[in-house]
Amino acid sequence: MAQWIGFMVSIKCVDDLGTYQGEISEADPFKITLTKAFCNGFPCDGQVLINASDIVDLKLIEKQIDEPQENSTVTVAKPVAKRAHRSYSTSDSVPKQGQIGVYGKSKPIDIDLSKKMDESLSLSFKNNTPNKRSLKGGKWMKGWKDEECFGSPVGSQIKEDFDFEKNLALFDKQAIWDELNAQKPDVIRQADSKKVAKYRHDENIIASQPTSFRQIVVPKQDFCEYVTDDGLIIPCISRSLKKKLFEAAGKAGLTFERQIELFGSAAAEISIHLIGGSHRLNPSNSHQLPTVVVLCGPHQQGAAGANAARQLTSHGVRTVLYYVSSEATSIRKELALYSMTRNRTVTNIADLPQAVDLIICALCEDTETPMSYPLLAEWINKNKAPVLALDPPSCGIPGIFPKISLLPVLPLPHSPSNGKLYLTNLAFPVEIYHEVGIKYQSPFGSKNTIPLHPNE
C-alpha cells in the first residue's frame, strides 16, 4: 500500500474518535499513520495512528507535490517627472528582487502637439489664463489643460509645509463674534438674548435625569462589588440572602423547574457561542458536529447542567452527560427528559470521549466545603477544551479551573479561580427583591446574560 503514501486523506472514525484529516506517511492493511493531522478541526501533536477497525469512512483528497520555486523576472516601469521643454514622459525600469537579466526601458508615450498648440500654450503661460486661440476646428485641443497645469517645471517655491493648526490658532472666533455683537444697538442685543436656543440634530432637547450607576442596593454591603460593561455597579450578596431570595421566588410561583429552565437556556446560549456558533452548527458542516461533555452532581446545579445538555441537543450539538448519582429528586426529572434525546449518558470516567469541544461543569453546589472529584479533575485538566461552570462555589471548584462561570440573579464574592463571571437574568419580579430587603433595578437591558468585572 505504498502507493497511497503522500496523499491527503479524510477519515471518519467511530463516534468517540471524531474525524481526522492529514497526510498519509505509513499504510498497511491494519493501520494508517497520519502526519500534519487535524482532529475535528484542531491540530494534533506529532503523528496519529488509526486502526482499520476504527475507520467508518475514508476519502482521498489529493497528493502533496513539492514544486521547487523559481526566480521570476519582473520589470516595473518607474515614472519620471516631465522636464521642461519636453513634450513626453519617460519611465525607467526598476528590477525587483530575484531579477536576472539586463535592465530595460519601457516605450515612451508620445504626445503630438501642433506648432499652433505650442504657440498658444507659450502665450497662455505668460497671461496665466487659458488661451481660446488653442481651438482647432472649433474644439479644444486634447491635453491642453494638463499641459497648463503640469507642464511648467517645479522650482523651489515650496520650501516648507503649511502649518494649518498654527494659523487656525491665530483666528479667535469668539472674539470676532463679541466684537460684532458689541456694534449692535442695545435693543437688538436684548432681543437676541431672549431667543430660544437652537439645537443640532444630534442634541437632546428633553431634559433627562443623570444616570445612576448604583441601581441595586443590598441590606448589608460587606463584600466586594462588580461592574458591568455599561458601568453599572452590581453588589455581592451573602449565601444566606441568596437562599432567602430563591425561597421567596419559589413561594411567588417561580418554582424550581421554571428557574432551572431559564438558567439552562442561558447556559446553552453561551455554550453555543463558545463552540463556534453558526460556523459549526450549519447543514454543510454536519460531518464534524461539536461535542459537549456535561458533568452533573446530585443537586440543583446538576439539574441545570442536565437541562442545558437537553437544550443543546435541540440545536444539533452532540452531548455526553456524566452524572454522579440519579437518586436525588432534583436531578431525576431532568435525567429522564435528557434520556429521550437519544444522546449518551455515562457513569464511568473511562467512557468519556477524549476529543471534545466544551466541558460544562455542574459538579459542586455552593457550600463552604464543596465536594471534590479528583479523577474528574484530572480528566478535565488533561483535556484542552474550555470549561463552563454553572453556579460554582464562591471559593472555587477543587482542582478545576473554569474559563467562564455562569451565575444566577446576583453574584456572591467569587474567587479569581472561577474565571470570567457572567450574570444571568431569571426574570424575578421587583417585589421579590423588595421582600428580602434589596432595592433592585434590572441591569440587563437588551441582554439575558451580561459579563461582570471587578470594581477596582
TrEMBL record:
GO biological process, one term: deadenylation-independent decapping of nuclear-transcribed mRNA
CDD domains: LSm16_N
Main location, first listed in the record: cytoplasm
Matches recorded under InterPro entries: DFDF, FDF_dom, Lsm14-like_N, Lsm16_N, Sm, YjeF_N_dom, YjeF_N_dom_sf
All residue ranges annotated as the DFDF domain in the record: 150-186
Stretches of the chain forming a coiled coil according to its record: none
Domain YjeF N-terminal: 238-434
Superkingdom classification of source: Eukaryota
Subcellular location: Cytoplasm, P-body
Sm domain: residues covered: 1-64
UniProtKB keywords: Cytoplasm
PROSITE patterns reported for this sequence: DFDF, SM, YJEF_N
GO molecular function list: mRNA binding
Pfam families, A to Z: FDF (PF09532), YjeF_N (PF03853)
GO cellular component: P-body
SUPFAM superfamilies: YjeF N-terminal domain-like
PANTHER family: ENHANCER OF MRNA-DECAPPING PROTEIN 3
Similarity comment: Belongs to the EDC3 family.
Protein name: Enhancer of mRNA-decapping protein 3
